[in-house]
Amino acid sequence: MMGKLALHIRPYQKQDATEVAALHNLLYPEAWHTPLSLNNWVSTVRECGGELWVSGWGNSVVAYAAVAPVPGLPGVVHLSGGVLASYRSRGIGQQMLDHVLALAHQNKIQQISCTLHSLNDATARFLFRRGFVLEHEEWVMKRPYLTQLPPSIPPNPDCHIHSCARHEAIPLFCTLYDASFRPHPWYQPYTEEEVAATLESNRDLLFLYHQQTPIGFAWVHEQDARQGSIEPLGVVPGHQGKGYGRYLLLTALHHLRQKGVTQAIIGAWKQNQAAIHLYQQLGFQLTQSIYYLIYNLTNKSDQKENQI
Length: 308
Description:
By secondary structure, the chain is an alpha+beta fold. 34% of the residues lie in helices and 31% in strands.
């Protein structure tokens, strides 16, 4: 039987790529990695201040845990990883989690988040038993075809949609995003540097104007030759509930179709019923629920201080 002392946890090295990619692909088949793409991903995580650790048993990698800062949310990190099926129920997951929590405390991390596709599997039960709680459920919705789209008609003659030069689009997007979502729990602000690093073309940011005033935005992404996504999309307070969101979304869908994309993805928190109702009206269907679990380290630190 495996003893705890036989397990060693260390930072990921490039020679681990084949084993870790194989384990990752078993755990997250929807986010497939080759050894090369995994190495590139780990480099990106480390550039952002994150890390990936592996658990070794003998000469084999049997588990890994990756922690990466969540953009726009200081003090919050996202946790992913898992244990090879044949090595589960041996305490490896607990040791990996203890390792992550210890380092999180040292680095003054306030919250750890992770995503699940089910609340009833072994991973969910493991995390719930160790203090993680459900924060929210996100719906992934798909329009499986972009043919026969309704026309994109402005709700009034004073509004129009167009793109801006890149140097204007990036700060304008950040300003409008903050104005649209700051009061809501799904607010996750962008920095201009983050937008610049991921924006492929200034034409992918669509801005809605009322007369000369920008009041909304949509960011379209071409994921591959077949599928695109719209994330995020928003209208500032004072102009919501007037048909502008529908106009923006339809314009974004037409934009994707002109690129040759045949289906579109959009996401929304389950409690954001206004957005979900709009998406359903325009042919989007629920395809998947993603559950976000969180572990608050500030509460645990307060409890420890009160016990001293």
